[in-house]
Model the fold of this input.
Amino acid sequence: MTDRAQATGSAAAAAAAAAAAAAEAAEAADTRAMLRDSLARYLADHYGFDQRRRLLDEARLEARYGAAWAAVSASPAPRCPRRPAAWADPSSIR
Done:
């Protein structure tokens, strides 16, 4: 195979891979849209407006602060520095 044929074959393979990736992304977007619409219909059928609004508000707060609180709760408690020995005897402080 010549260099030119190899380059043409590589370009065609890259174009085919890009087209496949684009088709996969479009399918994923369609799936997300169907799930979003199904969830919206389910919530509308089973929950009132105020309940849905409260659920959305809670989800927004969880999305915004949930990771931060999880990190804080997973971290070890802060430690206090050890007291110097001189503090044990108040008469030694001048």
About this structure: The longest helix spans residues 3-46. The chain has two helices and no strands. The chain has a mean pLDDT of 79. Helices lie at 3-46, 49-74.
